[in-house]
Amino acid sequence: MNYNVIAAVSKNGGIGYKGDLPWRLKKEMEYFNQMTTQVNQSGIQNAVIMGRCTWQSIPEKYKPLKGRKNVVISKTLNSVPEGVLLYSNLKEALKSLYLNDHIAKIWVIGGSGLYNEAINDNNCKKLYITKIDQEYLCDTFFPDFNLKEFEEINEADVPKGIQEEHGIKYEFKIFKRL
What we know:
Blueprint: E1 3-9, E2 14-16, H1 26-37, E3 45-51, H2 52-57, E4 68-73, E5 85-87, H3 90-98, E6 103-108, H4 112-119, E7 124-132, E8 140-141, E9 150-153, E10 162-165, E11 168-177
Parallel strand pairs: 1-6, 1-7, 3-4, 3-6, 4-5
Antiparallel strand pairs: 2-8, 7-11, 9-11, 10-11
């Protein structure tokens, strides 16, 4: 079973600052929610895998992320809310999710360390990157990836062209592993 990465990345490669997103883009967040929740049949759902810091950065009122199986990777957390899965590493989480008949797609949603691990794993087939055309003060960054290993593709359910919110331009990109 394959999985994907989804991230919004600023012009300077940033994805976060002090445990939060450096921007507020409602339509971009709606895109993230749509991509990570949509499934084609009832009785199944997608899984979102995140590191401890990403989990802790989600406001309490949104935890766990609705309509998705939430999976947290941490070597230090001892507990998570009921229904949320906790694993000490990505491979263990993926192995468990692959065996679950009720999971459609698996998405790695952050942070930097998990993104790096996923990009270097051949089972990670696509990178859904929102390229934000602005620089932000960030302390967490998306890892570089080799464009010789990925090609840019289009998908019908992903909006094309430049989007704009509050004067901030961004574009949805998809990179498929070759």
